[in-house]
Specification:
Blueprint: H1 2-12, H2 20-42, H3 49-54, H4 61-87, H5 99-123, H6 127-140, H7 153-162, H8 164-178, H9 184-208, H10 212-215
Length: 216
Amino acid sequence: MMGVFTIVFTTLMPQDIPRFHVFVLCGLLAWNWCAGSVMGGVFSITGNAHLIKKVAFPREILPLASVISNGINFVLACIPLVAIAAFSGIVPSPLIVLLPLVIAIQFVFLGGVALILGSLNVYFRDTEAIADVAILAWFFLTPIFYSVENLSPQYSRLIYILNPMASIISTYRLIFYYQSPPAPEFVLRMALQAAIVFVVGYTFFSWRAPDFGEEV
């Protein structure tokens, strides 16, 4: 995918972004974690009906397990990202120590989303079809192959506020690509957004979990 986007946006539709392959890879890896966790979260309860009906265990483990497994893939994928960046002339900076913080924020955010969607799909099976379409729309509304700063100011600010993944991907780029420290207030807002989503997701999931055995 990095190769496809690089060919399209450096040859067919050129963008003024140096080392575009590193730029887009930073976004793609974080997005893959997001997309895998969201779709895995949707099916986490209905796809494990045999466990829900027979075994007593904390139900929230199922959607969170999807986020964790995709998160492990992301962490492993960061190794070739660092190698590709170094080969392209972007030597890792000490800012890479901030990576665990950003990973933790993304995990909290995706955990909340997975908990919400996993619960909804138990009662509304159309959630699966809606998620398929929504994830594609979300992909294009997230700055993966373009920079938010290239948008008009009112839209760039709106994207950061309404789309937590835009803030998360931009922070990864600051660490890996621009090698510039993120603003503390930016990280704080990002963390608060993630925490709110997780609290809402966990509260909703805990409320509906006792009925999962009957519904699935």
